[in-house]
Amino acid sequence: xxxxxxxxxxxxxxxxxxxxxxxxxxxxxxxxxxxxxxxxxxxxxxxxxxxxxxxxxxxxxxxxxxxxxxxxxxxxxxxxxxxxxxxxxxxxxxxxxxxxxxxxxxxxxxxxxxxxxxxxxxxxxxxxxxxxxxxxxxxxxxxxxxxxxxxxxxxxxxxxxxxxxxxxxxxxxxxxxxxxxxxxxxxxxxxxxxxxxxxxxxxxxxxxxxxxxxxxxxxxxxxxxxxxxxxxxxxxxxxxxxxxxxxxxxxxxxxxxxxxxxxxxxxxxxxxxxxxxxxxxxxxxxxxxxxxxxxxxxxxxxxxxxxxxxxxxxxxxxxxxxxxxxxxxxxxxxxxxxxxxxxxxxxxxxxxxxxxxxxxxxxxxxxxxxxxxxxxxxxxxxxxxxxxxxxxxxxxxxxxxxxxxxxxxxxxxxxxxxxxxxxxxxxxxxxxxxxxxxxxx
Amino acid sequence: xxxxxxxxxxxxxxxxxxxxxxxxxxxxxxxxxxxxxxxxxxxxxxxxxxxxxxxxxxxxxxxxxxxxxxxxxxxxxxxxxxxxxxxxxxxxxxxxxxxxxxxxxxxxxxxxxxxxxxxxxxxxxxxxxxxxxxxxxxxxxxxxxxxxxxxxxxxxxxxxxxxxxxxxxxxxxxxxxxxxxxxxxxxxxxxxxxxxxxxxxxxxxxxxxxxxxxxxxxxxxxxxxxxxxxxxxxxxxxxxxxxxxxxxxxxxxxxxxxxxxxxxxxxxxxxxxxxxxxxxxxxxxxxxxxxxxxxxxxxxxxxxxxxxxxxxxxxxxxxxxxxxxxxxxxxxxxxxxxxxxxxxxxxxxxxxxxxxxxxxxxxxxxxxxxxxxxxxxxxxxxxxxxxxxxxxxxxxxxxxxxxxxxxxxxxxxxxxxxxxxxxxxxxxxxxxxxxxxxxxx
Lengths: 441, 441
Fold this sequence. Notes:
Two copies of one chain form a homodimer. The first copy, chain A, is an alpha/beta fold. Helices cover 43% and strands 14% of the residues of chain A. In chain A, the strands form three sheets. Chain A has an eight-stranded mixed sheet with strand order 2-9-8-7-6-3-4-5, sandwiched between helices. In chain A, helix 6 (146-154) links the parallel strand 3 (137-142) and strand 4 (158-165). In chain A, helix 5 (119-131) crosses helix 9.
C-alpha cells in the first residue's frame, strides 16, 4: 500500500516534468544538448577531487585589494555612467585600450573596428549568428574548443575537422579539405582556429604555417576566425604575431580579458573587418542591447591604473610552474603507451591513451578515485576523440596536480590490466558534442 | 586636377568600405537593419537637446556611496568567487532573491526555474532562439517594444500585431487573430506581451482581460511571454498581479533589475516552465557561457543589505512627478487634434498626431528645435505607427520635460500650418523596423 502510494507520487512527479512544449521548439533547439558527463562534473567540483577538468583561471593571484578600491572609485567618480546603459559597440575608451593590448601581438587596428562582447564566447555566438545558415560548413581543428562546437551546433552548422599535429593545423590537410568541400558544393563560411596554445590540444601553429594558412584561406575565399584567449600567456619569450596582424580584411580576431584579468567581468571582444563589424554591432544590440557598462569601465580602469603587463607576467610564471608540475608527473606516473602534448603556454595538455582505452568510460572511475578530466569526445563534433583526454593545469596548485596525476595513472593502470585480461576496457559511451558547463571554458 | 584627386581619394575610401562578405552572410542577417533615425539620435544626445526619446532610468537617484561600498566589500569578502566564471543558470542565491522580488506580483516560484540573463533583452533573445524557426509567428501588441521586434526579426519570425486600447490588449482581437492564423496554417509560437505600463504605449492590461488573455492562449496552445520590466514602478497602490502568477505552465516571465536598480549591471532573468528552463540554460551557455558573476553578486548584495523596496518607492515618486510634468505640459502646449495615453506607471506616453502628420518626418525638425522623441514606426513591424510617437519622461527633470514639450508643440504647430497650406506635411520616410540603440530600451 505504502509502496503503491510512493509509486503514484513518483509518477506524478515525473509527469510534471514531461515537456508540454516538445513539439514547438525551433529546429535549432535539437542542436542544444546537455553534456552526458555534466552530472559527473557536479561531483568533480567537491573539494576532495583534484580537478584537471576545468579551464578556470587562478584569479586568486590578482591583487584583490587593488581591484576592490578600483571598483569603489569607479562608482564614486563615474557612478551615473557606470550604472547606465552603454553603447552596443562597447565603451570607446575601453576599445582604445583593447587596441593597445592587441598591439603586443603585432595587430594595428582602430577602436572603431572593435566590438566589446560578453566574453569572447559571445563574440563567437554573434559571428556564427551573422554567417551561418543551417548546413553551412565551419572548419575547425580536430580537436577544438568544446564551447565553440556547441555554438556552431546551436546554429546548425556542419563542423568539419582539419587535422593538426604538434605544430598546429596542417596546411596540406586544410587545403585538401577546402578543395574537397568546395568541389562537392559545400558552403564553407569560415575556419575557426585557436592558433596559439590551443584549447584543448595545447599546441601552437608555427610561423611558417601561419602564412600558409592565411594564403590558403585567402585563395579559397574562406574567412578566418582567430580565437586567441591565451596568446599573452606564453612561457617563453615574446608573444607570437597574431594571424590578424597579417590579414586585416580576412580575419576576425576574438580576444578576452578572462584569462589575463578575470572571467567574472565577462569582457571579451571581436576585431572585425569594417562591414562585418557593422553587422556584429547590430547582432550585439539584438542579443543583449549592450554589455555591462560597469564591468567594461572596471576593466578600463584596471588597464589605465594598474601594471597589467606585470600581472600577466605573474600569471605566466604561475601557469608555467603548474605546466611543469603536470608534465613532470605525467612522465613519472603514466604507464607506457600514454603520450601527451607539451604546451608552451595556455592552460591545457592533450593526452592520448593506449590503444583500446576510452576516456569517457574511464571518467566515472577516475571521479571515484578523486580526480577529474574532460574526455576527448567533447572536442570533436564527429564522434572522434575517445582515446584522448584534456588535462588542465591552470587551477590546482602544483602539489595537487601531482597528486591528481598519480591517481589518474592508477585508474589507467587498472583499465590496462582489464584490457589485457578481457581484451577490452569498459564499454564506450555514445559520443557526441558535450555542451560545456562554464567551468569547461 | 585637385578636384579629380579628391574624387579619386573618395572613391578609394568608399572602396575600402565595400563589403567583401556581402554574399556570405546568413539569411537572418538581412533582418538585422540599422535604424534610419540612428544618426539623428547621435545629435539628440547633445546636452542642449531635451531627449524625450531614451528609456534610460534615472540612476542618479541611487545612493551611489552605498553602491560603491558594497562593490568594494564584495571584492574584499568574495573576490575569488566574484571574479570567476559562474554557472550558466546564474548565481543560486540571486535566483532565490529574484523569487522574493517576484512574490510582490503574486508569483510563487522556485529558484530552480529562474535563469539569470544579460538584461531581460537576452532572455528575449534566448526564448526566441529556442522557439522560432524562420516564418514562425510571434503575436505582439501593436505597438510593441522596438528591441523585441528587432530580436524577432533577427530570427526571421513573422510578427503579427494584435490591437490594443487604453486597457491593453483587446481579447477579442487576440482570439480572432489566433483563429485566423491557425486556420491558415501558421505556426504561432508565442504571444509577446508587456501587460503592465507597456512600452511604448504606457497602457496596462486590466484584470478582467488578464484572465481572458490567459484563457485564450491556453485554449489555443499559445505560450505567453510576459515581459515585465516596469511592474514595480506603478504610481497608484500595490503592484498588479503578474500573468505568470495564474499560469505557471503557460507563461514565461521576463524580469529585470535595469529599472528598479541599474541597467549598468545588465542583470535580468527569465522564469520558465521546467522543460523550457532546461533549454534556456543550454542556450545561455552556448551564447555567453555564463553571465558576469561580479554584477550578479553585486545585485545580490544590494538586495540583501539595502532597503530596496524603499528605493523603488523613491523611483516611483520621481517618475510620477515627471509623468505629471509631461501630461500637464502636453495639456497646456499641444495643439488640438493631438491625443495621448495616461500611464499609471513606467516610463512612456504614446502620442497620436493630427491626421496627415508623420512623426518620422517631424523628427529632423524637432531635433533642430532641440527636442527628440521616437517615431511610432519603430514599434510596428508592419509599417504602421507613422501618426504616433513615443515620449519618455524617465530621464529629464520636470522643467526640462516642460521645455521639451513646449518645443515639440511648436514643431507640430508649424507642421499643421504646412499641412493646412499645402495639403500635406513633409514626405513620409520609408517605414520598417528600427533596430534600437541601447538608449531606446
